[in-house]
Amino acid sequence: MLLSANAMGPRLRFGLFTVNAVIAAFLLLPILFIVLLSFGSSQWLVFPPPGWTFKWYEQFFSNAQWMQSAFVSLKVALLTTVFATVLGLPTAFALVRGKFPGRDLLYALFTLPMIVPLVIIAVATYALFLKFGYTGTLTAFVISHVIVALPFTIISIINSLKLFDQSIEDAAVICGASRWQAILKVTFPAIRPGLVAGGLFAFLVSWDEVVLSIMMASPGLQTLPVKMWTTLRQDLTPVIAVASTLLIALSILIMLVAALLRRRAELKG
Amino acid sequence: MNAVVRENQPSSVLVSLRNLNKHYGDFTAVDNISLEIRDGEFLTFLGSSGSGKSTTLSMLAGFETPSSGEILVSGSSLINVPPHKRDIGMVFQRYSLFPHLNVRDNIEFPLTLRKMTTAERQKRVDAMLKLVQLEAFAHRRPAQLSGGQQQRVAIARALVYEPRILLMDEPLGALDKKLREDLQDELRHLHRRLGITIVYVTHDQEEAMRLSQRIAIFSHGQIVGLGSGYDLYQSPPNAFVASFLGNSNFLRVKSVANASASFEGQSLTTVPVGGLTAGQDVLLMLRPEKIRALSVEAAQQTALPSGWNEISAKVREIVFLGESLTCNVVTPGGTELTVKSLGSGLQNVQPGADVRVRWAAADACLYDQWNDADLSKGAGAH
Known about the structure:
The complex is a heterodimer of chains A (about 270) and B (about 375).
Chain A: H1 10-38, H2 55-62, H3 64-97, H4 103-111, H5 118-132, H6 138-163, H7 166-174, H8 179-207, H9 211-216, H10 224-234, H11 239-268
Helix pairs in contact in A: 1-11, 3-6, 3-8, 3-10, 6-8, 7-8, 8-11, 10-11
Chain B: E1 13-24, E2 27-38, E3 42-46, H1 53-61, E4 68-73, E5 76-77, E6 88-91, H2 103-113, H3 118-131, H4 147-159, E7 165-169, H5 177-194, E8 197-202, H6 205-211, E9 214-219, E10 222-227, H7 229-234, H8 239-244, E11 249-257, E12 260-263, E13 266-269, E14 281-286, E15 292-295, H9 296-301, E16 308-320, E17 325-330, E18 336-339, E19 341-342, E20 354-360, E21 365-367, H10 372-375
Parallel strand pairs in B: 3-8, 3-9, 6-7, 7-8, 15-19
Antiparallel strand pairs in B: 1-2, 1-4, 4-5, 9-10, 11-12, 11-14, 12-13, 14-21, 15-20, 16-17, 16-20, 17-18
Helix pairs in contact in B: 2-3, 2-4, 3-4
């Protein structure tokens, strides 16, 4: 490394440390703030909280609407994970292994949902579902979420497929396995970390998605972020802070699992 | 495993490649190759990268489909047989072990696919572990093994189902020199013990010489030389092989009569070659160890034996290489020669000294056709 920590003077090192600390605080303080508020006794989200309580958690877990929207969120996220992974796997194989004209164009198309503003996708899918009478259904939620989750699973699987030495699969074939057997018994186990990471990303994308969900939601069917958004427009109850905290907690948990899996894969390889 | 030594038995043809072609668009990777591989022989495809040797091996394995031509094993066509049904073993350059399985499970993999009984599988895997001396490592993962150990596992995995043919695609290329030589010896012994047919691909001519009974030299998608290492070295079929294999000196001479030629105005004796017209350009090839350099005094005292030639030259430089002394000399006409056999009185020869260079006509090879690009050492040498 040209610019190593030891080669820098103490002043430069201190300066860099300060800048990093400020950036980290800028990113993390809102999260810390909302988590603390969820335990605060004030009904008006006063900071610092005058006292501490679990009563907003009690309210959250005893409220059927909140619980139902959390359950819908979980269901949508799980279904999105399954479909995005199942569809992403063959797509990634075709994009890595296939030799056909327009392959790079196809790759660009598949990753487009990461670049196109969400609102545009939301309006487009909404218009389409309206035409076919699918708005406010679980199907509409899952399909729209799969659209934005798919690039994450595809890219993650593509990366692990590219790292996988195809001659290992060829070795299985020459040993007597058909191409399918070889992929199932040798290639899949080898790319599993990428598969799992892609699935976790898909879950996260769906879990905290709000723009598409607002369009897809109906009074009877809404995800947790939608419920938070609609509640926020009516009153400023600390239950929203509870919902936020739970969203954050699950996201962090999933990121930890992903990091752990990656670490294990690296140790093995 | 049988331990019959089959090295010198005349054997039947196992594999026939007939007019094999492989095109990628406009590029011809393999250009009309025909070759017969004998049962039980160790045959090496030798060539630089892009010469078509690996593509030919790939077609034999079934990973590439020939554009045209036929591959026969024991008389029946392999063209429409998918790779997993060809009953061929293969060892790859990067070992290609299954990373999630331990050594034992890697070797057992082909047997599980063949639905053998547990007892039979165990017996065969044990025998293979013993053969490649990895009994103590049976429960390790590939990542916990050295490169040499990994390649031994790959060999065991390729042999455990007793295929008719073992293909090896630069299997030792990723190993360092010492380990490579050890494994070359192991491989040669293994071949002798098992009597299996091995087709080996390498760009390393020393490795090809060390291992194989026959070598097929590839260049631009064609086989330009086929034979034992000895024959290919001593009497190369063409100037490319002469230049590619080992070191060589080329003299541009003009044919005078049936068994004589002229070189820079001097008359030379050659072996009789039919079909040459007087005045035709001919290329004369001499191996450095076949040329003898003598001091001028020694040459005056020693009569030239019959059938030998002598030309004069000046010493350019002398390089000591441990087991041999190499002397570069240049003729009055500017032709450079490398000489490895130094006569008496030349132990302390200095650059610039006049010497006499001698060789037996029978040791020279003559070519009436050649491509000047083939003569440079860069033509496929590594």
